[in-house]
Specification:
The complex is a heterodimer of chains A (112) and B (113). With 112 residues, chain A is mostly beta strands. Chain A is built from no helices and 11 strands. In chain A, the strands form 2 sheets. In chain A, strands 2, 4, 5, 6, 9, 10 and 11 form a 7-stranded mixed beta sheet that branches. In chain A, strands 1-3-8-7 form a 4-stranded antiparallel beta sheet, with no helix packed on it. In chain A, a hairpin with a 2-residue loop joins β7 and β8. Chain B is an all-beta fold. In chain B, a hairpin with a 3-residue loop joins β9 and β10. The radius of gyration of chain B is 13 Å and the shape is globular. The chains are: A mainly beta (112), B mainly beta (113). The interface between A and B is medium-sized, with 22 and 18 residues.
């Protein structure tokens, strides 16, 4: 199985700050069609996960451009600029290139 | 709008079985596979597998090849997760998801004697 390693496991942030979360995979996430199926999800407290970014850098509808995703092959980053209170929760990276799909361990974003 | 609505919470005893439903609406059900994800209390997301909504063929991740059954009622745009011979470690919230873009609200399953 592809192991997804997310760091840091938790982040304390002040409103308005910017943060980055790293996600590294044990294998390349480039599929045979040339696309990279690495996604970012946010799970707010008590809620189901919500996809924010798909295929490394594409924002889902309604996601503010304060969120951005970069990376390639095995190394990916989610950046949140000007953090707002509604951004708090647990962020997961997820890969759907290989079966079984796998998730990172999560990064909990909390208020400082 | 696209929605996945799951059945309500379940309280079961070890050895019993249950069946969770996931009703899809707002899109053509057979266009996308349905995924299933387990989240134990206070833990991360654990992928269980998927079911082909055109053929009904399920594919299970290794940890879920025993006791777990994915099925469909395509005419009702509904996917099901059945868990047989429940164990304490099955206590978790179970999510259905389409492409990981759309998620059900989760079904809390508690297994306790």
């Amino acid at each position: 199985d592809v192991v997804m390693t997310q760091t840091p496991p938790s982040l304390s942030v002040a409103i308005g700050q910017s943060v980055s979360i790293s996600c590294k995979s044990s294998q390349s996430l480039v599929y045979s069609d040339g696309k990279t199926y690495l996604h970012w999800l946010l799970q707010s407290s008590g809620r189901s996960p919500k996809r924010l970014i798909y295929q490394v850098s594409n924002l889902d509808s309604g996601v503010p451009d304060r969120f951005s995703g970069t990376g390639s092959q095995k190394d990916f980053t989610l950046k949140i600029s000007r953090v707002e209170a509604k951004d708090l929760g647990v962020y997961y990276c997820a890969q759907t290139t290989h079966f079984p799909r796998t998730f990172g361990g999560g990064t909990k974003l909390e208020l400082k | 709008q696209i929605q996945l609505v799951q059945s309500g919470p379940e309280l079961k005893k070890p050895g019993e079985s249950l069946k969770i439903s996931c009703k899809a609406s707002g899109y053509t059900f057979t266009d996308y596979a349905m995924q299933w994800v387990k989240q134990a209390p206070g833990k991360g997301l654990h992928y269980m597998g998927w079911i082909n909504t055109q053929t009904g063929k399920p594919t299970y991740a290794d940890d879920f090849k025993e006791r777990f059954v994915f099925s469909l009622e395509a005419s009702a745009t509904t996917a099901y997760l059945q868990i047989n011979n429940l164990k304490n470690e099955d206590t978790a919230t179970y999510f259905c998801a389409s492409r990981f873009a759309y998620w059900g609200q989760g079904t809390l399953v508690t297994v306790s004697s």
